[in-house]
Structure formats: structure tokens, C-alpha cells
Design a protein that fits this description.
Elements: E1 2-13, E2 16-28, E3 32-37, H1 44-51, E4 59-64, E5 67-68, H2 73-78, E6 80-83, H3 95-105, H4 110-123, H5 139-150, E7 157-161, H6 169-184, E8 188-193, H7 196-200, E9 205-210, E10 213-218, H8 220-227, H9 232-241
Parallel strand pairs: 3-8, 3-9, 6-7, 7-8
Antiparallel strand pairs: 1-2, 1-4, 4-5, 9-10
Helix pairs in contact: 3-4, 3-5, 8-9
Bound molecules: adenosine-5'-triphosphate.
């Protein structure tokens, strides 16, 4: 369970400050997939980076399973599995070694790591390349390695930044099935995307974010009702273009 409340983050740029995240707040529940949907530059990655403790917010609060990220980031990290926007697998290591390395960082023993890799290699269909060095891997193979690495410690909460970026249809389908399995296991799953159909196909609830602000929260049907539009792409365009004061709430 993840709670994000009134997050703010600014960056200094030569042309002046960039207020990337302006009061973002939402709840992501266990046993649900929550989609963070927004156009390029909306503030999705910045929000997720604060959630997975890579940067601190200027203002606001984040709780993971009731633990305040600012007070106990180490405990929070143990409960999070993160696929960051930069996948960064070690190219001199095989996929298996990449995953093992993270398992050891989490303090897992060899037998546990072996068992976890065995399970994930089957679910993510990684057998063909598991023992190859990742140098030269396709994007899909790199993403799968990074996902398996992120989940080696069996976290309750899973955060994926644009997980289907650059993946083909078959791999995307496989990944969707995998995320549904995580949900069925009662985990809290958040993923970001700028593609409405992608989010609609998978998410129980969608948080629409644009210009650093939450524009609407709801199920795909609730968002359709709120806007009076049937086509989800039109819904997204309408919500993303809304003025801040027009923010819509469809909290379940
Ligand atoms: N380290 C940084 N320094 C300066 N500006 C930044 C930094 N990180 C993000 N920004 C700016 O903050 C805004 C939000 O960026 P962010 O990466 O969070 O968007 P996003 O929704 O993930 O976009 P995309 O879908 O294009 O990845 C953008 O204007 C971006 O240029």
C-alpha cells in the first residue's frame, strides 16, 4: 500500500526553476494495479523517483505500508521492487548474475536466490538468455532482466517506470500477464505510461498527471463518465489539457 500526499519537487535550470511536481497526491492499494498516466514531461518519473527514495521531495509525504519514506528509507526500500526509467544492467555479467548480485545486496542466501531466479525465469520466459552476458541483449531481454532483478527479494510493492517502452507486442502481452499475477498475489503495483490504451488494459485505477499536477483519478469507466467521452484516447487528451482549477476527482 502506497500513500502519496501533496508532493512538490523543483529543479534549478539555467532558464529558471522547473516546478516538475506540484502537489501530487494519490493512493495505490494492495491487490490493485495503479497507472500513472501523463504526457511527456508531466512529472511521472520525478514522482516515482521520490517514491523509490532516489530523491527527496521539497514538500509532501510518502508512506509505503505505513512507513514514512523520510523517516525510514531503508525499511521502505526493502518493501519496494523498482524498475527505474534507466534500466542499467551490468553488461559484463549474465542475466542470472545480474539478478544474483541484487539478491546478495538484499542479504538473501544462495538457495533463496536460486529458487527466485528459477520461478521468474519461467514466468518472464527468460530461459533462452538467462546465462548469456547481457552485452548485446535486445531491449526486451534487458527489461526482463531488470524486472527480475527488481523483484528478486519478493517485494510487496512493485513500481515500474514505463515498463513496456520499446517492447514488441508479444513481450508486452507477457509482461501484462506478469503484472496481473503480481496483482493476484495481493501486491501493490504502480506503473507509469504515456499511452492511455496501455494503462486502460491493465489498471484498476488511473491517476492522470499533467504539468506536475493530478488531473483526475478513477477507473477507466469513471474517467469516461467524468468527461462524457467514450474513446479513452480522447479522455486522456481532454484531461491532460485541463486547466489546473478544472481538476477532476473520481476517487472510488
Ligand atoms: N534533474 C532534472 N533537472 C532539471 N529538470 C528536470 C530534472 N528531472 C526532470 N526535470 C524536468 O521536470 C519535468 C518532469 O519530468 P519527468 O521526467 O518527471 O516527466 P515524465 O512525466 O516522466 O515524462 P516522460 O514521459 O517524457 O518520461 C520536465 O520538464 C523535466 O524536464
Amino acid at each position: 500500500m502506497i500513500l502519496i500526499d501533496n508532493l512538490h519537487k523543483s529543479f534549478k535550470a539555467k532558464s529558471g526553476p522547473v516546478h516538475a511536481v506540484k502537489g501530487v497526491g494519490f493512493e495505490a492499494r494492495d491487490g490493485e494495479i495503479t497507472g500513472l498516466l501523463g504526457p511527456n514531461g508531466a512529472g511521472k518519473t520525478t514522482t516515482l523517483r521520490m517514491l523509490y527514495t532516489l530523491m527527496s521531495p521539497d514538500q509532501g509525504r510518502i508512506e509505503v505500508d505505513g512507513i514514512d519514506v523520510a523517516k525510514d528509507p531503508t525499511a521502505v526500500r526493502k518493501r519496494l521492487g523498482v524498475l527505474p526509467d534507466a534500466r542499467g544492467v551490468y553488461k559484463r555479467l549474465t542475466a542470472r548474475e545480474n539478478i544474483e548480485y541484487f539478491g546478495h545486496l538484499h542479504g538473501l542466501d544462495d538457495a533463496t536466490i536460486r529458487a527466485r531466479i528459477d520461478g521468474m525465469a519461467d514466468t518472464l520466459n527468460m530461459r533462452d538468455f538467462l546465462d548469456r552476458r547481457t552485452e548485446g541483449f535486445s531491449q526486451g531481454q534487458r527489461t526482463k532482466t531488470a524486472i527480475a532483478r527488481a523483484l528478486v527479494h519478493d517485494p510487496r510493492n512493485v513500481i515500474l517506470d514505463e515498463p513496456t517502452n520499446g517492447l514488441d507486442v508479444m513481450t508486452t502481452r507477457g509482461l501484462r500477464g506478469f503484472l496481473r499475477d503480481l496483482k493476484a498475489e495481493g501486491r501493490c503495483v504502480i506503473f507509469s505510461s504515456h499511452i492511455m490504451q496501455e494503462v486502460a488494459a491493465l489498471c484498476d485505477r488511473i491517476v492522470v498527471i499533467a504539468h506536475g499536477e493530478v488531473r483526475a483519478i478513477g477507473t477507466p469507466d469513471e474517467l469516461r463518465d467524468q468527461t462524457g467521452l467514450a474513446d479513452l484516447e480522447d479522455v486522456f487528451v481532454r484531461l491532460a489539457a485541463l486547466e489546473a482549477e478544472g481538476t477532476m476527482e473520481a476517487r472510488a
